[in-house]
């Protein structure tokens, strides 16, 4: 059941949120009695409130059933209606609430004085919240999706973003195969694909493809959203196309995620507690490493124990070394290193919230704590948050304030998971007495062998990688309800955050073995101070004219200022493992000194939004916004953005009025607009300098160029088209949403690396364009649909597919292409007609059975044993041809069960495990453990039909199509079961609500490709138990 208290407060009550509510205005019409020839009427009046908290509902439609005569409630929920002095039915309808039909008999007029409406969980999803205004989805021309907080939490309790990607096909969290389930790694998120080029690396720490996040009407950061307590969330709306995002202008080309938190409910003091208790279990199923016998056999075949110089003494040494390891294996040594750094993490989160108040003032005070223990020892993420929500209303004025204070502490392991995966299984972890040696193997002096470090040695030292931050956010909103149809709103928000990052490596760490004592050990501290503020002033108008013409308009002004200061330094020369404070350091690392940088981003905008609906059938939305931003060139500081949307509610047409029992919605819509992107560096258009002490002379300290600016840098612009349909029929049992979209980003703005001769490492430039087209669809069927009985069974499937390509690039990104070709595993290229997700490599005809060498296919179709990088072509694409989620949910009188499974079909992947741990194993890599296929699937005289080349420590393998594989996956993304206890069972306990839930996430993953995932931090499976109590 949707949490009606939180959902209604945030979505439906104008007093609780920063978004604007389209006010319904008082409407009058001819008396229906005139239609049957009589003028005898009576005046009926009353008041409409929310059944849960008694708050007046504004804009409720009060109609005489079967006619178009009606009225709408005013700011206080009051209404007056002229009705015939004869029996009739009066209907009360409001978005997100159950429709009420009351019979008027002539003698029961007093029963209409107080009407209480209850929320409808299904209809709550029919409200579009943009963060600036709200609109009924039926009259909205944009493409959007809204999900309630309880709906998101049923999918998973990690964070709202993980749940969003399960419920909506356009929202995608890109899999991070390097950092897996690390709780401190921020995800890469896309809505309908990429719109920007980031280059081989993003120099400034910003993601140009990240969507815009709006929290309670104010812009916020990805990390804030990740840390947000899910129990506070009332709803999340994803805005996808130009009509829905254009109100945010040049910041919205990547889509917008609008988050509304719960507002305090009216009534007596109410105390609620919600807790989540979970287990995180490492998923190591993708690792396919050799055991001790296999690794020793592989080393023998690779020639590790064969002297190539003919030195008999060295051969004896190598024979003894092999025999020593063989003896250890025979004694039972077969160490499983992967189990050493991992644990079963216990995660717990708690949220306590007290709320109450009356008509004039409502209050809410909350405290939450969370501790996410990752599956690697030494990794965790702790959050502590307090919030105070106040709403005060007097007459036509309302004041709202939300204060949030937060503290964050994170820890990451000092030794990555890959170091344990590299350790050979024929070594013992510890000595017989439990002590740990620094080296698993240290070669004799004068040999060419490499020392092998024991990862447990570095892990047990006094190393740490920690981050702490403390900050607050205060958002204030003033609203003046000038008329029933006119509202003024002003809001101001300020955010302050101080962050302190510290990393420390002990002087006993193995990486300092060859250094002088005065250079051993390393301490690094970075301090970040951020101060952001944002303001917005807007006028909202909404009026129904002559019963057929609905007009909505919003006009406003917005400004923001974001300032960040970074201080940092490193120190080395520590003499003792236990003395970790920087005061024990001897000096700075050679060539380094303390650093300071400052970033200032300012933006201002003017916007207007207009909406018109004729007879609730024909819909028009228009948006215009003028944006100015400090990060662009002096000649391009301001930019215009616009959008237009059209919609047609076919189910409202007369030729379908006799089928309203079958079609509840049949709507087509389309939009076009040009949103932009501001996710770039503050000073990318300006040349910046840094001081250098070694250039000091009698004239002062010298400076050199730090970043080369581009004063002609223009805004990145995306023309966005969308055509879609929303269909609901068979008594709300079948819901279909379909969108086809195409986007043209022109010009692109990219941060690319440059040649060393330029004196800078990167530069920002405009070049070329990117064209994307795709579709997305959602189908939900309810074979059993009895909402009034609390019984409902849903089956759902969503799907999406998209393609992108570059155009008009020319040789602008030639440097990126050169770096990709020289990189060992770089498979991305930037060419006209090429895809951002294409895999580039030389085609392979396989391994020649006679010689064991790879045979390549050149561009002209001929064959050659010689690899030529100029023969690179597109050999695959990481973008799946089809992906989505299959799901089913069952609700039965408080009990609910849900299962969601993700599928990906038709994409390809460059298998780095085969490329780096089966082939390309050099003289140093051979001392690390490897994939089993390096032993069993390599070419030899006895295995001429092998897929991989013969074992060699000196031969390098180049990128070819032999390592590109079709990838199809099926994942158990979420399985949940819960129960909400009925009042009759908890009344004796003096509880208002009691609920329990168990959720399992990422329980299994089946893939057509076996590749190592979670290189530096493993993936995890999670099980969470949740408890909710309201007193």
Automatic annotation (TrEMBL):
<keyword id="KW-0813">Transport</keyword>
<protein>
    <submittedName>
        <fullName>SusC/RagA family TonB-linked outer membrane protein</fullName>
    </submittedName>
</protein>
<dbReference type="InterPro" id="IPR036942">
    <property type="entry name" value="Beta-barrel_TonB_sf"/>
</dbReference>
<dbReference type="GO" id="GO:0009279">
    <property type="term" value="C:cell outer membrane"/>
</dbReference>
<keyword id="KW-0472">Membrane</keyword>
<dbReference type="Pfam" id="PF13715">
    <property type="entry name" value="CarbopepD_reg_2"/>
</dbReference>
<feature type="domain" description="TonB-dependent receptor plug">
    <location>
        <begin position="137"/>
        <end position="256"/>
    </location>
</feature>
<keyword id="KW-0732">Signal</keyword>
<dbReference type="Pfam" id="PF07715">
    <property type="entry name" value="Plug"/>
</dbReference>
<comment type="similarity">
    <text>Belongs to the TonB-dependent receptor family.</text>
</comment>
<dbReference type="InterPro" id="IPR012910">
    <property type="entry name" value="Plug_dom"/>
</dbReference>
<dbReference type="InterPro" id="IPR037066">
    <property type="entry name" value="Plug_dom_sf"/>
</dbReference>
<keyword id="KW-0812">Transmembrane</keyword>
<dbReference type="InterPro" id="IPR008969">
    <property type="entry name" value="CarboxyPept-like_regulatory"/>
</dbReference>
<keyword id="KW-0998">Cell outer membrane</keyword>
<feature type="signal peptide">
    <location>
        <begin position="1"/>
        <end position="34"/>
    </location>
</feature>
<dbReference type="InterPro" id="IPR023996">
    <property type="entry name" value="TonB-dep_OMP_SusC/RagA"/>
</dbReference>
<dbReference type="InterPro" id="IPR039426">
    <property type="entry name" value="TonB-dep_rcpt-like"/>
</dbReference>
<keyword id="KW-1134">Transmembrane beta strand</keyword>
<dbReference type="InterPro" id="IPR023997">
    <property type="entry name" value="TonB-dep_OMP_SusC/RagA_CS"/>
</dbReference>
């Amino acid at each position: 059941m949707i949490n009606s208290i939180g959902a209604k407060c945030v979505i439906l009550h104008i007093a609780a949120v920063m978004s604007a509510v389209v006010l319904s205005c008082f409407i009058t019409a001819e008396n229906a009695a005139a239609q049957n020839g009589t003028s005898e009427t009576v005046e009926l009046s009353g008041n409409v409130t929310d059944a849960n908290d008694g708050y007046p509902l504004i804009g409720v439609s009060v109609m005489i059933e079967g006619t178009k005569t009606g009225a709408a409630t005013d700011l206080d929920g009051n209404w007056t209606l002229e009705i015939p002095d004869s029996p009739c039915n009066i209907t009360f309808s409001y978005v997100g609430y159950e429709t009420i039909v009351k019979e008027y008999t002539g003698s029961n007029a007093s029963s209409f004085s107080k009407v209480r409406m209850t929320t409808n969980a299904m209809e709550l999803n029919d409200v579009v919240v943009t963060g600036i205004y709200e609109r009924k989805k039926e009259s909205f021309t944009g493409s959007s999706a809204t999900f309630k907080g309880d709906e998101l939490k049923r999918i998973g309790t990690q964070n709202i973003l993980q749940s969003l990607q399960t419920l909506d096909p356009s929202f995608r969290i890109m899999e991070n195969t390097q950092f897996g389930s690390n709780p401190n790694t921020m995800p890469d998120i896309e809505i309908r694909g990429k719109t920007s080029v980031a280059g081989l690396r993003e120099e400034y720490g910003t993601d140009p493809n990240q969507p815009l996040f709006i929290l309670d009407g104010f812009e916020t950061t990805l990390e804030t959203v990740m840390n947000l307590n899910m129990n506070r969330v009332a709803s999340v709306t994803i805005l996808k196309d130009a009509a829905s995002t254009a109100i945010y202008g040049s910041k919205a080309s990547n889509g917008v995620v609008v988050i509304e938190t719960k507002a305090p409910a009216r009534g007596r003091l109410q105390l609620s507690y919600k807790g989540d208790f979970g287990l995180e279990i490492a998923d190591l199923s993708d690792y396919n490493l050799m055991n001790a016998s296999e690794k020793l056999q592989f080393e023998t075949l690779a020639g590790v124990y064969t002297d190539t110089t003919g030195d008999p003494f060295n051969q004896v040494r190598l024979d003894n070394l092999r025999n020593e390891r063989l003896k250890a294996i025979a004694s039972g040594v077969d160490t499983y290193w992967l189990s050493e750094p991992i644990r079963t993490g216990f995660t717990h989160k708690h949220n306590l919230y007290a709320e109450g108040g009356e008509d004039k003032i409502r209050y809410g005070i909350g405290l939450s704590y969370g501790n996410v223990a990752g599956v690697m020892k030494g990794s965790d993420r702790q959050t502590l948050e307090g919030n105070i929500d106040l709403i005060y209303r007097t007459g036509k004025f309302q004041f709202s304030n939300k204060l949030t204070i937060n503290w964050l502490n994170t820890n990451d392991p000092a030794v990555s998971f890959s170091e344990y995966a590299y350790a050979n299984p024929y070594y013992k972890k510890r000595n017989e007495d439990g002590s740990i040696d620094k080296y698993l193997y240290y070669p004799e002096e004068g040999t060419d062998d490499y020392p092998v470090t024991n990862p447990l040695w570095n892990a047990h030292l006094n190393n740490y990688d920690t981050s702490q931050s403390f900050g607050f956010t205060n958002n204030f909103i003033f609203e003046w309800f000038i008329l029933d149809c006119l509202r003024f709103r002003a809001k101001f928000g300020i955010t302050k955050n101080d962050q302190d990052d510290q990393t420390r490596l002990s002087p006993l760490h193995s990486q300092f073995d060859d250094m002088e004592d005065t250079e051993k050990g390393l301490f690094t501290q970075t301090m970040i101070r951020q101060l952001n503020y944002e303001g917005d002033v807007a006028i909202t108008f909404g009026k129904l004219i002559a019963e057929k013409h609905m007009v909505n308009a919003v006009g406003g002004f917005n400004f923001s200022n974001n300032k960040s200061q970074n201080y940092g330094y490193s120190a080395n020369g520590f003499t003792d493992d236990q003395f970790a404070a920087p005061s024990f350091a001897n000096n700075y690392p050679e060539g380094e000194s303390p650093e300071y940088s400052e970033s200032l981003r300012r933006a201002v905008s003017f916007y207007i939004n207009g909406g018109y609906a004729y007879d609730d059938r024909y819909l028009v939305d228009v948006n215009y916004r003028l944006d100015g931003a400090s990060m662009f060139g002096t000649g391009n500081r301001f930019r215009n953005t616009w959008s237009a949307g059209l919609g047609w509610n076919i189910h409202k047409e007369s030729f379908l009025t006799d089928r309203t029992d079958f079609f509840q919605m049949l709507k087509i819509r389309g939009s076009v607009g040009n949103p932009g992107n501001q996710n770039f560096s503050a000073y990318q258009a300006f040349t910046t300098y840094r001081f250098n002490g070694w250039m000091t002379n009698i004239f002062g300290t010298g400076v050199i160029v730090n970043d080369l600016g581009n004063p002609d840098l223009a805004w990145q612009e995306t023309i966005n088209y969308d055509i879609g349909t929303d269909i609901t029929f068979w008594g709300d049992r079948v819901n279909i949403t379909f969108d086809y979209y195409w986007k043209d980003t022109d010009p692109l703005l990219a941060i690319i690396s440059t040649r060393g001769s330029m004196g800078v490492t990167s530069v920002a430039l405009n070049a070329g364009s990117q064209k994307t087209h795709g579709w997305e669809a959602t189908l939900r069927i309810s074979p059993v649909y009895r909402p009034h009985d609390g019984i409902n069974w849903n089956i759902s499937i969503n799907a999406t597919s998209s393609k992108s390509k570059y155009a008009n690039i020319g040789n602008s990104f030639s440097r990126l292409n050169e770096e990709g070709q020289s990189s060992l595993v770089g498979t991305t290229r930037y060419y006209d007609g090429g895809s951002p997700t294409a895999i580039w490599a030389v085609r392979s005809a396989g391994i020649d059975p006679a010689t064991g060498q790879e045979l390549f296919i050149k561009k002209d179709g001929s064959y050659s044993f010689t690899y030529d990088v100029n023969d690179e072509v597109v050999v695959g694409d990481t973008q799946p041809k089809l992906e989505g989620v299959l799901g089913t949910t069952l609700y039965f009188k408080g009990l609910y069960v849900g299962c969601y499974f993700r599928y990906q079909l038709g994409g390809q992947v460059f298998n780095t495990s085969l490329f780096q741990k089966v082939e390309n194993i050099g003289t140093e890599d051979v001392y690390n453990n490897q994939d089993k296929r390096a032993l069993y699937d390599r070419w030899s005289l006895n295995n001429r039909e092998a897929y991989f080349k013969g074992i060699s420590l000196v031969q390098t393998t180049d990128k070819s199509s032999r390592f590109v594989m079709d990838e199809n996956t099926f994942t158990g993304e979420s399985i949940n079961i819960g129960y909400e206890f009925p009042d009759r069972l908890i009344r004796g306990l003096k509880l208002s609500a009691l609920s329990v839930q168990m959720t399992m996430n990422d329980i299994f993953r089946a893939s057509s490709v076996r590749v190592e995932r979670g290189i530096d931090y493993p993936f995890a499976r999670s099980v969470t138990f949740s408890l909710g109590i309201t007193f």
